[in-house]
Amino acid sequence: MGKNIFVPGKITTYTFCIILLAVLIQGMILSPFKSLGTLTSGEMTFKLGYPYTFFELNSLNPDSNPFVWQAVLKDIVIYLLLAYVIEIILKLIMLPFSKKKPEETANISKESLEIMKQGKIAYDYYRLQGISEQNLIEMFKNKGWTEEGIAKLKEMK
Fold this sequence. Notes:
Strand order of the largest sheet: 1-2
Order of helices and strands: HEEHHHHH
Number of strands: 2
Number of helices: 6
Radius of gyration: 32 Å
Distance between the termini: 23 Å
Helix content: 55-70%
Structural class: mainly alpha
Shape: rod-shaped
């Protein structure tokens, strides 16, 4: 198996940023609308963060620190885990569609692979010229090709 699907990569970083931006944008858009109902009491709050509120600005207590550091850390851990799980799921979905080298090709040197490609070109050329398959097999055997090598030539695309 080529790449390890459990190693976090760029997708985790991008997904984390997208999740963080979505939470911030959602908080900025929805927070003013949530506090409109409480205007009769004179209190207006601006909250950011999901599932934990990590930024809370309160109009009745403007001197307090708006950041809740424990919630920031909890949210970041949740967002990172979520981004990591999303990347693993995407890699598992894309695994069947990734290009895989056949085991035979992986064990063959570049030199041998080039000889196989040239042999395939010659094989196809002579077949187009009308030479029978039996005569071609005999011709390749006379040049030192094995039955196995000739069979691989026929399978190559």
